[in-house]
Each structure stands twice: as structure tokens, then as C-alpha cells.
Amino acid sequence: MKEKNLRSDMVISAISTAEGRGGIAVIRMSGEGSLDIARKMFSRKGEFVPNMMYAGKIDAGSFCDFGMCVYFRAPKSFTGEDSVEFHCHGGQEIARGILRRTLELGARLAERGEFTKRAFLNGKLSLSAAEGMADMINASSEAEIRAGFLLYGEKLTCEGKRLQAMITTALASVEADVDFPEEDLNADSRTQIGHTMSEVASSLSALCAQYSAGRKIKNGVNVAICGKPNAGKSTLFNALLGYDRAIVSDIPGTTRDTVEGTLEIGGVLFRLTDTAGIHESDEMVEREGIRRAERAIAAADLILYLKDGDAPAAFPQNVPVITVGAKCDLGRKAECDLLVSAVTGEGVDALKELMFERGYGRETGEAFLMEERHYRAAERALKAAENALLAVRGGLPPELYAEDMKEAYTALGEFSGETSSERIIDEIFSKFCVGK
Ligand code: GDP
Fold this sequence. Notes:
The chain is an alpha/beta fold. It has 14 helices and 12 strands.
């Protein structure tokens, strides 16, 4: 899969900074010949010392700009190839003109994620590290940046490789037995293989357990705010967001549709849905609002239930519910987890803390298993490791558990990308931006 010559057959070039106007823009080239193109465009006549920023004139053919140029010599560059960056003034037309000139001089426009794909193919980073980097760029919360950074730092790949190394050692003794069956695999060796696979399985189940937090880091914690009409849902929703997003009125049924808003609590993104109160209604628009409210409840990781009197509520059993005694400034004392007044602000911070605790989990450590692809691979590896363990302990023939052990090894290779198909790899990089 890692064909070395998939790499620098051509210099690729792209604007790496975001579209639009800014202080500076960066145009990046990678591949053998990048420096030759840069020399034709940049005013420096002398030698280009790698990693050194030079100030000078960038010639785009039809205009010039003053800017900076830096050369990274292979393999000590992001892509592992010769690379050059121009840092110019951040006008869209300036950056486009400089890019156009690199193309006229022989570069071709980079595809989405092609710089990172080349870095991956040249062994500069693993597939999960590349995904972590994309997670950081696309992050909508600090927790996602932190988890992305752990992936980018090869945390998952290292764990995968550690477990693969354990399996390899165990497989060597299994294979000795398959090759020389007459020397019956001794009991000690079988016990050792059992120990190893049990350790692999328990590491993998700890890894999989991270996903419940990781999924929330990646997608946010879905919170549905529920209760009868006029219970104070929209007011509380606005108080949590810190601005007036939903319309508040004392006319019951004002919130006829679901309204969404996001906020960060402890660095984690919470997606709040203010629902239309769930109640009997003959009115068509209102009924549709209620249906949407039911959908929001079904998708919720956490429900805030504004308890008003003894209103009965039937929520999905496995979803945590915080019962909120709203409008506590009016002196109401419903039985609830917490008293809140969205008008005076009393209890709002305590509610946020409780939301973090029940919706995300205070005990959650630094999770980095947040990509579904990684979770599927970890699950597959876990299942195979458990099957192998059962077979070892059940005294089944070594050929049988050798297969499961190999399957666990292959599934673990999905973290680094060494066993990933070209289709998966292409799919991952096609989601990157051009210039990354
Ligand atoms: P919803 O129908 O459940 O979304 O309820 P709203 O948020 O629209 O509020 C209904 C009425 O209760 C409005 O007149 C609000 O101003 C009032 N209200 C909401 N929260 C509070 C509160 O904490 N204290 C007081 N005093 N009034 C509130």
C-alpha cells in the first residue's frame, strides 16, 4: 500500500491559509523541484539554508509582493519531501497570483489533503495522527482540540503498536506449535499465550470504554430541555447560552419548533435543544413541534426536565435526567435535583456543573478514542482477542486461535493505517482542506 513512488512525481502547490482577507497568506509547495520554482520567484540570489526564513520580493509574474520564503529540505519537512513556503500579504488576489505563478512554473494544484497524504505515505505520521490533526482543525470545542492533539501525538498508534508487539510475540510460540505439532505445545506456553491475550483484551476494552466520552467530545453532548408549556424552558435555555436565542413569552405554546444552541462546559461542547412542551394538542403546527421535541428527546445524551407540579414524564430509560425546579425566585419548591431561577441567575452555574457531571462525566480522563473508525477497529480487535482467549482456554487447536490473533493484529493496524485499504485512506484525505 505504501508505494514510495506514489510520492513526489510532481511538485504540488496550494494556498494553505483560509480563503479571504487576512494579515498574511501562506502558499506551500512540496516535491522535488520546489526550490527550483521558488528560486525563479524569490529575489534571494544566494544559497537557501533549510528552515531559514528569508525576507524578499516574491515575483508573481504580473505583480510583486514583499514577503518571506522558507525552504525545508527532505526528509526534514512536514511531507518528508523538499518543500517551500511563501508568506505573502494576505489579500486573496495576492495569494492566488503567487499560486498561479507556481503552476505556470511547473507545479500542479494540490488535491485535498495531499500534503498530509504525502506525509503519511512517506512515514512522517500515521493515519490516526493525520485524522487527529484534522480533528484539531475542525474542532468546535477545547476538548476536541485536546483529544485531536493526543491522536496527532501518536497516542493511539503507539497503543496499537504496543498491543501488536504483544500479539507478535505470542504468535511466534503458537506458530512453532503449528509447524511442529508432534512437540505438543507445552502447557506453560499455552498459559503464557492466554495471559498475553487476556492482557490485550483488557487493554482493548479499556480503550473501547473511552468511546462513550470520545463520541461526546467529537459530536457534543446532546441535551433536550423538556417540560410543560410555560415551565420556563426557553428562559432557561437563553440563560444557559448567555444570550437571547429563543423567544420567551407567557403565552403557552410560543416555542412551536425546536430551537438549538451550543455552549461549552469544561471545554466540552453541549448542544442544547429547547423543545416545544410535550402535551396534548389538536393544532397541526404545534403537533409537528411536539414530534420534533420527541425526536430531540430520543437523540439526547441528557435531559433537563423542568418539573412543574407533578407533571408525569416518560423519558428513555438509559438517558440521565436532571430535574430542575425552575422559577425558584417565585418561591416554588418542587422536589428536584436543583433549584434554578433563569431570571436572577441563581443555580445556573450549579446546573452547568451538574450537566457536565451527568452528561459527560467528571471522572473521564483524557479520552482520545473519538473517531468512529478507530472505535470500530478497536471493537474488531477486542472481539478477535476475546475469541482467541476462549480458544486457548478451551484447549482448541492452535491453528484456530492463531487466526483470531492475526485478525486482532490486522484490526490494530487500522490505527496506524498500515492495514487500511487505499479506499479508506483516500476517503480520509478527501475530507481535508486543499493546502493541508
Ligand atoms: P416555556 O414555554 O417553557 O419555554 O417558558 P418560557 O421560558 O417562555 O417562560 C414562560 C414565562 O415564565 C415567561 O413569562 C417567563 O418570563 C417566565 N419565567 C421563566 N423563567 C422564569 C424564572 O426563573 N423566574 C420568573 N419569575 N419567571 C420566569
